[in-house]
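#struct-pred
JK: can someone run the complex with manganese (II) ion? inputs below
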Amino acid sequence: MEFLYTYKTLKLEFPLSEPEKAKFVILGIPFDGTTSFKPGARFGPTLIRHATLNLESYILDYDVDIAELPIADIGDIAVVAGDPRKTADRVRDTLEELKRINPDALPILLGGEHSQTLGAVEALRPASYVVFDAHLDLRDSYEDNPYNHACVARRIGELGVREAMFGIRSGTREEVVYAEENGIPWVHARDYDFDAFVELVKPLPEPVYLSVDVDVFDLSLVPSTGTPEAGGLGFWEVVEAMEWLVENKRIAGFDIMEVGGNELGDITALTAAKLLFHFMGAKGSL
Ligand SMILES: N=C(N)NCCCCNCCCN
Ligand SMILES: [Mn+2]
Ligand SMILES: [Mn+2]
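RT: done, C-alpha cells with the ligand placed:
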C-alpha cells in the first residue's frame, strides 16, 4: 500500500515484507528544523539505513537472523521544513493509518529530531514512556517553540503518559523542579546501572513506548548527534535495558532519534544501526 506522506530512498538490503503483514515497520523522520547545535539530523534515517549495509543480519547474541523476520520499511515522512508540530502531525497520521491496516505492527522510528517522538506517542497512546537521553527535555518552551526537541518529554507527560528517564546529565534547574513536582523519575548517567533501570521500570503500566535519543551514549559513540554531551552510557548498557523491556513489557513503539551526520559511514549511524538490529533481534527471538 501507499502512505500519503512517505517516500522511499535507500532501503534495507534483505527481503522486506508488506506493511500489512509485517511485525516490525520502520519509518524514517528526516527532520531537523529546531536543531539547536549540530545540524544533520535530516540525514539520520538515510545514514542509518546505509550503515546497516555494514552489519550481518544474523545476530550472534540471540541466534536470530533478522533477514528472516517480517520487517517492512515504509520510507521517510515528507517533513514540513522548520515546523516540528506539523511534521509530528504527519508522523501521527501515518502511524494511525498503519495501525488501521495492521494493528499488530510494532512501529520503529528512525530520526531525526526527538521532537517527532510526540507524534508517535499521540498515535500509539502508550501508558508509559521510557527514555534514554542525556537531556531531560522537560522545558515548557525553547527558542519560542513548545514543540522544540528540548520540550518533547514535557509534552508527552502532559498527555498523561507515565515517564522514566535514564542516562540524564543535562537540564535546567526549572526542569529538575518540574520533574520533582510531577513525579517524573530520572537517573543520572553517573548513577545508571541495570538494577536502577529495572526498579523504576518494573511498576510502569503497559504498553510502554521506548525512546532512545542517541545522545544518551557517550559522545565517542555518537559524535554527530545534534547536542552531544560527554559522560554518557555504553552500548551494552542500553542493549541490556532494551532486552529486559522486550522480555517483560508490552512495547507500543520504539524509536532511535537524534542521529545526524553529513557523511556516509558516520560513527553515529553505525551505533544506531547496531542498536536497531539488536532491538529487532531481541524481540524477534521471543
Ligand atoms: N534537549 C536538549 N537537547 N537540550 C539542549 C538544549 C540546548 C541547550 N543549550 C544550552 C546553551 C546554554 N548557553
Ligand atoms: Mn538529548
Ligand atoms: Mn531528547
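RT: quick notes.
Residues 131 and 211 are 5 Å apart (CA to CA).
The mean pLDDT is 96.
JK: thanks, will look after standup
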